[in-house]
Design a protein that fits this description.
This protein is 29% helix and 40% strand. The chain starts with a strand and ends with a helix. It is built from two helices and five strands; from the N terminus they run ββββαβα. It is globular and about 45 Å long. The model has no long low-confidence stretch (mean pLDDT 91).
């Protein structure tokens, strides 16, 4: 099964994550099929939305964490700017 999940990079106590498409059985930081974005724990999520849509149409399931980040990003985009 193909999943969309986070792969940890960066240094100790200063991580950043790549949003990757990979097989579910692969290790967290192991080989991946495609890198479709990045996530900085400071709150910045940058995704290639076209590739995300492509992979979800192909049957890739986002992990719980990625799903939560996507929902938060959608809520933030829908919120009125003051």
């Amino acid at each position: 099964m193909v999943t969309i999940r986070l792969a940890r990079h960066g240094t100790k106590k200063l991580p950043f994550y790549r949003v990757v498409v990979t097989e579910a059985r692969r290790p967290r930081d192991g080989r991946f099929i495609e890198n479709i974005g990045t996530f900085d724990p400071a709150g910045k999520l940058a995704l290639d939305s076209a590739r995300l849509e492509y992979w979800t149409k192909q049957g890739a399931k986002p992990s719980h964490t990625v799903e939560r980040l996507l929902k938060a990003q959608a809520r933030q985009a829908a919120a009125p700017q003051s």
